Amino acid sequence: MKSFIKSEINAAIEKTKQEFTETTDFVQSENKDIKASLSVVETYISELEKENCNFLKNITSLQNRLVSMEKVSWSCNVEIQAVPEKRNENVLPISL
């Protein structure tokens, strides 16, 4: 009787060991997959950050150019005050 109980306990222990091994192997496999996915995502984020930095530099450059162009544009304007306006007046022929 003792040997039967002992063999049953050993069989249960072996079954539990096998199930535990399968579970840890599965978890390890999933962990490897997650690490691989994380690596891909980190690379993608790094590329996006570089692209974003380049866009910000371009935006700054374009803003500076726009400010310069606006200054040049305003420096060529002439404003005349205290001259009466007529309705539907076309001022283009006058300025030429």
TrEMBL record:
Q: What is this protein called?
A: (apollo) hypothetical protein
Its lineage reads: Eukaryota, Metazoa, Ecdysozoa, Arthropoda, Hexapoda
